Each structure stands twice: as C-alpha cells, then as structure tokens.
Amino acid sequence: MIARQDDVETPLLQRPEQPVARTPLPWDQFWIILFLQLSDPFASQTLAPFTPQLIRDIGVTHGDESRVGHYVGILQSSYYAAHALTIFHWSQLSDHIGRKPVILTALFAISVSMFSFGLSKTFLGLVISRAICGAFNGSNGVIKSMVMDITDVTNMPKAYGYIPLPWMIGTIVGPLVGGSLSRPADRFPEIFGRSELLKTYPYLLPCSVPAIFASVAYLVTYFRLKESVSTTAPLWQLIKGRFLRQSHAKPFTPSANALVDSGAANSEEVSSQPLPLRALLTPKVWTVTASYATMALFHMAFSSILPVFYATPIELGGLSLDPPRIGAILASSAVAHGTFQIFFYARLNDRFGAGAIHLAGVGSGIPIVLLFPVINALARGHGIGLAVWLCVGVQLALMTSLLMCYPCSALFIRAAAPNRASLGATNGIAQMVVGGARIIGPASAASAFSYSMQEGHDAWLVYYFLMAIAFLAVSTSLLLPRDPSLWEDERQ
C-alpha cells in the first residue's frame, strides 16, 4: 500500500507546469481589422474641429454664442442614441448572416453619411446625417466580435493590445484633416478659390476625406476580408422566420470562407446555433455588462469633464488653460495611452490576469477624481508650476490604467457568452448598454460640473458625483472572477 501511495502521489506533487503554446496572431486578417476600425474614429474626429463654426454658419443659434454648445451636444447625442438603439441588433444579425455583410453595411453608411453631412445646409440635415451613421454603423461591436472569432485565450490579450492603435491614429489625423481643410476657399484661395462647390459647401472637403477612406475600406473588406462565422444563413431566411425567431430551428449552411477551425475538437461548439435574447441574459452576461457599463460610464464622465476643467478659470475651480495647450495635453496623452497598451497590456495580463487589471483600473478612478481639487488648490496657492504639472501627469498616467479595462472587458465578454455562435449577440448586449452610458455620462457630468460652479453651490458636487460612479464601478468589478478562463472552464 505504501509503495502504491508513493506511485500515485509523487507525480501529483512533482508534476512540472506545462508551458502553454501561444497561437500566433493571424496577421493576414488582423491587419485588415485594424485598418477597418480606423474608419469610425477618423470620421468622428474629423468633425470635431469645425462643428461649432458650422453651427454658427447655418444660423440655428441666431447669433447667441451660448447656444452653440447646446446644438453641438444634440448633434453628438443623435449619433450615440441611434447607435445605442441598433448596435445589439447588428451584432445579433452578424451571428446569423456573418460579420462581413454587417461591416460592409457600416462602411457604406459612414461614407454616405459623411458626404451628406458635408452637403447639409440645415441643422436637421446635420442631425439626420449623424443619426443615419449611428443607426447603420454596427462595425464597432461587430469588429470586436470578429477579433474574438479569430483569436483564442492565448493570443487574444495581445490582439486587444493593438486595438487602440487605429483609435490613436484617428484621434491624431482626424482633427488635422477637419481643422486644416474646412472652408478651403477662404484658407487656400489660390487652390480652391475658383470652386463654386466648395464656396457653397465649405465643409464638404474635410468630410470627403473620411468618406473616401471608408469607400476604400469597403473595397478592402469586400475583396480581402474573410468571414469569421462558421455557419451563416441567408437574410431572407431570417426575415421569413419572423425576424430571427424561427431561424434557429432551420439548418444552416457552413460558410466555405470561414476562419473558424471545424475540426473534431470544436465540432460540437461550431455546430451550435445562435441563441435568442432571453437565453443570452445569464448571470455571467449580466455581471460583465454591469461591470463594463459602470466602467465606461465613469470613463465618459471623466473624459467630458477633463477639458472643461482645464479651460475653466482657476478662481472657479479649473486650471485656466488655453485651447492649444489643452489640445496638446489630450493628444499627447492619447499617444501615451495607446503606446503603453500596445507594448505592455499583454505582458501585464499574463502576469496579473484580466480580473486584477480591471479592478486596478476602476480603482484608479478614485485618486483620479481626488486629484481635481488638489490640482486646483495648487494652482490657486502657487500658480501653474511644477507641482500642478506633476499632478496633471499623475492623473493622466492613472487614466492609462483605466483604459486597460476595455480589453479586459472584451476577454470577460468572450468568456461569458453562452456559446461561440452567440458571441456577437452577447457582445451586442454589452455594447448597447455601454452606448447608453456614453449618452448619460457626458451629459450628467457636464451638468453637475456647471451646477457646482454656480455661486452658492457646493464646488465639490461634481467630484462627489464622479466618486459615486467610481465606487459603483469598483463594486461591480468585484463580481468578476480573477481570470476569464474560469468562466470558460465552467462553460465547457
């Protein structure tokens, strides 16, 4: 018995850890995904520099300068509202007809809506253009689902480390295009002064650049991007099945162009069908959606407050910085955040796990908020000196930790999906709720900031508000497991 016990226990105690073989990134398709993702931020960031002047030019404010920000906010909200209402349906549809048709639709919508925006002469036309772009642009969520399709647990963290790259490029190039090419007949009369078209539509040229880029991306997608969903159904079959409800009982035709491995090891998972909405609302999906939404709510609220805080006079609680300096700070921080995530996120994920990184990210929101009054107090007492810039740098560095919550959330969404065939719909649920947070966060935070700055009100009100969101995000983050693989093991 003793000899038998030694034979059984010794391998268990002395078993060496087997190194996990890492799957290389499928760069033949991944570079196309990164290229396609540039279309969305490029288009939105191109509009940012000239939208206030466009609002003034069309005369909707009737010369009231205080109303410009109001109409700019309506224009931005029209996109996010339409996007939030439709992103789940596009994501769910991509589980049935494939990711590629949905991405092609989104790129076509971006191109058409940008041309329409540049040709609009009324505020209603501008709103309709942005609403159409938001309603038909399901690419953001679907591209994230496609990344999940073509990666596995060994290379997905590395893949999501590159996801900020197109957003970083769009944030840099978009404002340059929008700022330099708006009103070209006035700015460059020797080149565009004879163009009656550009005199009539002074913002058509900057809108045309991202529109043409989206058209090029459409052609690249059509000819080079491979479908990543292993089973697809014709759209007419879904319509005939009462908008996806009866289509689950019908046989699906395997896509010959699919990237997903259909070997024996994955045959059961690949043959599974997309689930209806009610079956997707599992405790895991609710948990990761709540965590993702509260984190995004805090990030959007903080991001909307930050430039306002920089521009607000010191005596009213801000920092009294001019627009060029604010733009330089935000642009340099975007480059730093993206660069850090590209080079270090995968390593940090391997070392600490997605759960710890996510908790540290939302936890950094607490010192981020506390630094606002500290920075203002230093500016009041000592002017804008080294101490102020040091605190600003620390606050932006902590923001890097917060931004790494996004790839962590993607890993948890993949693990929370009830099956592989419902990955797009699961991601769509999270994106839909986060879309609502993108609408609520900036509006509520800006209102709280304005209210707290008024005479007779508590100047710390906005910081109480942000702190409450930060603690809420930390609370929901504690519900996540330390590693997404724990959820995937339970599913298997």
What do these coordinates show?
The chain is mainly α and 492 residues long. It has helices at residues 2-14, 27-37, 39-47, 51-58, 68-97, 99-119, 123-136, 139-150, 156-162, 164-181, 184-187, 189-192, 196-200, 204-224, 235-240, 267-271, 277-280, 283-311, 323-352, 354-363, 365-382, 386-403, 405-416, 423-453, 461-477, 485-491, and strands spanning 231-232, 253-254. Strands 1-2 form a two-stranded antiparallel sheet. Mean pLDDT is 83; it is low at 1-17 and 246-271.
Secondary structure layout:
Blueprint: H1 2-14, H2 27-37, H3 39-47, H4 51-58, H5 68-97, H6 99-119, H7 123-136, H8 139-150, H9 156-162, H10 164-181, H11 184-187, H12 189-192, H13 196-200, H14 204-224, E1 231-232, H15 235-240, E2 253-254, H16 267-271, H17 277-280, H18 283-311, H19 323-352, H20 354-363, H21 365-382, H22 386-403, H23 405-416, H24 423-453, H25 461-477, H26 485-491
Antiparallel strand pairs: 1-2
Summarize the structure.
The protein has helices at 2-14, 27-37, 39-47, 51-58, 68-97, 99-119, 123-136, 139-150, 156-162, 164-181, 184-187, 189-192, 196-200, 204-224, 235-240, 267-271, 277-280, 283-311, 323-352, 354-363, 365-382, 386-403, 405-416, 423-453, 461-477, 485-491, and strands spanning 231-232, 253-254.
Oligomer: single chain
Supply the helix-strand structural class.
mainly alpha
Radius of gyration over all CA atoms, rounded: 25 Å
Please report the distance between the alpha carbons of the first and last residues: 36 Å
Q: pLDDT under 50 segments (min length 5)?
A: 1-17, 246-271
Largest sheet: 2 strands, antiparallel
Determine the strand fraction and express it as a percent band. Answer: under 5%
- H and E order: HHHHHHHHHHHHHHEHEHHHHHHHHHHH
Q: Fraction of residues in helices?
A: over 70%
